[in-house]
Amino acid sequence: MAADQEKSIIELPTINEDLVNWAGYGEEQLSRVVITGELFCHGDRNHKDLVHPLPVSGASIAVFCGTSGPKTRKSYAMGKTDGYGEFHIDLPSHLHSIPNLEKICLVKVLHLPKTCSCRHAFTGKHKGIELTSIGEGIRTYTAHKIHLLQKPAKRHMNRRAKTRNNV
Question: Cross-referenced Pfam families, in alphabetical order (predicted)?
Fold first, then answer.
């Protein structure tokens, strides 16, 4: 009897570990949801950068997911753009079971590096996402390309202000 009891006690951690993994909380992820996109900066309107935008690296990007109404529940995940202006953000596991994330998730640029001369072309707005692939436990969504406009130079802003005041 004591030998049987000792054997079952030794096997318990393995059983618990298997249950934890089976429930999706173990070391190995059972599913993954990734949001991708690209961030570009358009230069001066009189310059060729308007046609050929430059990638923005080091920008902070966030994915906000949630519902509105009396039981509002929001979640978010953050990431940064790489040297090519691309971002890949893994969503938290509690959002993996939601089938239509494109209906409740939005992407927003939170912060631009000091060296970036762009401003948001969609000030105050978020960018929606679209499902691009499903397979092998991975769902991938994209925000496609996010385009930002260059900040107007201070001298242009002063000139505009003077023109408005003189009119």
Answer: Pollen_Ole_e_1
